[in-house]
Write a structure and sequence with these properties.
Shape: globular
CATH architecture of the largest domain: Alpha-Beta Horseshoe
Largest sheet: 7 strands, mixed
CATH class of the largest domain: Alpha Beta
Radius of gyration: 23 Å
Helix content: 40-55%
């Protein structure tokens, strides 16, 4: 039996962020588990290919064409195809890929997993007849049991964490318990993707500025319940983590085998278990592992004191991103339910500045319950942190992702401004795009205007910062010349 896992191409719309060249870790973990069990498995990475971007003026397509995917499926002749189903903004290409597969051979079993389908499995199958099975939550062992089903060793009714069709009806099986001991998982199947393509990417997203960098996830699950976030819905609220030893061995492995120089820890809660996190930092120092690392998904600022920040820097940390979300304490407490003291954020910024550690912060505006004044307060807080402590500002607009409390509130109260198309989702969180939420307090255009003005002011501050620090300017010009050109152009236009 041949199993093919496909990472679909991606499409980006005007106003959306450029793609980040992340490894398809979900598929790579599934492949590793399948291979360990003795199955023949391949990964078709239709996103990160030798091809360049294709820009038709309306969209930017990255990866193989659907005709090329069709040819690959015809050549490889798989019995099962597992498709990565990313967040809502990119699910359309996953659907198109499944249609192509069924054109090649209707008997191929098509399986899809990921955040979007986990949240609406029955609805997704109802709307997309060319999928046979939806995996909800973690996919490693569900996919393994689906393979066993194809071999006649299991019944679909026995497999937890899936939805499927039977006699014209859609059946939703009970959720699969989450993996408690993540250390039982083998390393991702790095050899099944073009590692050099990822490691040498120079133009895909913000990660492109780091040489020979890969993503790594060392924990799963989130015990928090921020209104806009769906992570706990598809990865569970129970925090589970690889041991410090597993993480260190894993980092050493990719450094030795693939000459990795930078690691992006993509965890949703990297620092939740402080003892484990400190053990990782201590191990990086003690083992003298020569690798830089960053936290692009963000960590909690209130978990990072001065001593820990010093240890992080010593262990190779190049930058720390934190999730602030709002500069208005009431919005944080009562609307977002973040339970974060903004004074702790300022303390984190001061300490990071003191030791010379690069920092960035994520912010979101446009929540129901906010006023334009509340949003401006967030902008003012973000610009203050930039001006005084050089904290990077990453500003997004609130987006009602399926399954979240934000979505349910917006749906119930009629706050969603227009149809939830893939295009709309792709653009909604970006300053150049248009938000989806409209209330009595604000329109999508008003939120967008606040974001655009904030971004312009932020760019001015960035230019001023580089002028005051020529050494930093030269480094940025060398590493990221296109950013310097954008800054100058923006300043000239003002």
């Amino acid at each position: 039996m041949k199993i093919l896992l496909i990472n679909p191409p991606q499409t980006f719309y005007p106003g959306s962020e450029p793609p980040a060249g992340n490894l398809p870790l979900g598929l790579m973990y599934i492949a590793a588990v399948l291979r360990k069990a003795g199955y023949e498995v391949e990964i078709l990475d239709a996103f990160m290919t030798e091809k360049d971007f294709c820009d038709n003026g309306e969209t930017v397509n990255v990866g193989l064409s659907f005709e090329e995917i069709k040819q690959e499926v015809e050549t490889r002749k798989p019995d099962i195809v597992g498709l990565a189903g990313p967040f809502t903004s990119q699910i359309e290409n996953t659907i198109k890929t499944s249609n192509i597969i069924k054109e090649v051979n209707p008997d191929i079993i098509t399986v899809v997993g990921g955040p979007h389908v986990t949240l609406i499995p029955k609805e997704f199958l109802e709307e997309n007849p060319n999928f046979d099975v939806v995996v909800t939550g973690e996919g490693e062992y569900a996919m393994l049991e689906i393979a066993q089903y194809i071999e006649g060793k299991k019944q679909l009714e026995e497999i937890q964490g899936i939805a499927y069709r039977k006699n014209g009806k859609i059946i939703l099986n009970p959720r699969r318990p989450f993996i408690k001991d993540l250390d039982e998982l083998p390393y991702p199947a790095y050899d099944l993707v073009n590692m050099e393509k990822y490691l040498n990417s120079k133009k895909i997203g913000y990660r492109s500025f780091q040489n020979r960098a890969i993503s790594m996830v060392t924990s799963r699950g989130c015990p928090f319940n921020c209104c806009f976030c769906a992570v706990h819905l598809h990865m569970g609220q129970l925090f589970r983590a690889h041991s410090a030893k597993y993480v260190l061995d894993h980092v050493e492995y990719v450094v030795d085998k693939y000459k990795v120089k930078n690691v992006f820890f993509e965890d949703d809660n990297l620092t939740l278990d402080i003892k484990r996190f400190e053990a990782v930092c201590d191990g990086l120092i003690e083992r003298k592992i020569k690798v830089g690392w960053e936290t692009p998904n963000g960590v909690r600022a209130d978990f990072l004191n001065l001593d820990l920040l010093k240890k992080m820097k010593k262990s190779g940390c190049k930058s720390v991103f934190v999730g602030v979300e709002s500069g208005d304490q009431r919005i944080l407490d009562d609307v977002i339910c973040k339970s974060l003291d903004l004074n702790r954020v300022v303390e984190f910024a001061k300490n990071s500045r003191k030791i010379g550690l690069k920092t960035g912060a994520f912010y979101i505006i446009g929540f129901p319950g906010e006023t334009k004044e509340n949003m401006q307060k967030t902008v003012d807080f973000a610009l203050m942190l930039k001006r005084e402590y050089d904290v990077g500002m990453h500003l997004f607009m609130a987006t009602p992702s399926y399954g979240t409390r934000l979505y349910e509130e917006c749906k119930t109260k009629g706050y969603i401004d227009r149809n939830l198309t893939w295009n709309a989702f792709a653009q909604a969180r970006q300053p150049k795009g248009l938000p989806l939420i409209s209330t009595d307090e604000f329109t999508p255009t008003e939120v967008k205007d606040i974001a655009v003005k904030a971004l312009a002011e932020y760019k001015k501050l960035s230019v001023i910062g580089h002028i005051k620090n020529p050494r930093k300017a030269l480094k940025t010009a060398f590493d990221q010349p296109q950013l310097i050109l954008k800054y100058i152009k923006n300043l000239a236009s003002k």
